[in-house]
Design a protein that fits this description.
With 99 residues, the chain is mainly alpha-helical. It has a single domain, classed as Orthogonal Bundle (Helix Hairpins), CATH 1.10.287.210. Helix content is 67%, strand content 0%. It is built from three helices and no strands. Helix 1 packs antiparallel against helix 3. The relative contact order is 0.16.
Length: 99
């Protein structure tokens, strides 16, 4: 039984690390996409300045571009996920496990 628990813990650590890595990559990509979108919006507004920018050109009354950057929050969460995954099992004596 103890061997199964140890194997399960190892598999869980691998899955947790892979999940955290995927979340980190997505958070970085999201931040990069946000930056690129804002750059494109600025370029379009510059090119369409005579018409009032993108909003003026297309007569849009609610034309505020706001993209929240949650990348930092996601990176903090992944740090916590990794910390939890690397917690020594001996600290969890309350689970009835003695390793």
């Amino acid at each position: 039984m103890l061997n199964r628990i140890i194997r399960f813990q190892a598999v869980l650590k691998i899955i947790t690390n892979q999940t955290a890595t995927a979340l980190e990559l997505l958070a970085r990509q999201s931040s990069q996409m946000r930056e690129a979108i804002y750059q494109n919006q600025m370029a379009l507004d510059y090119l369409l300045a005579e018409d009032g920018g993108v909003c003026g050109k297309f007569n849009l009354s609610n034309c505020c571009l706001q993209i929240d950057d949650n990348g930092k929050a996601v990176l903090e969460i992944t740090k916590e996920i990794r910390k939890i995954a690397h917690t020594n099992m001996e600290k969890h004596m309350g689970w009835g496990l003695v390793v």
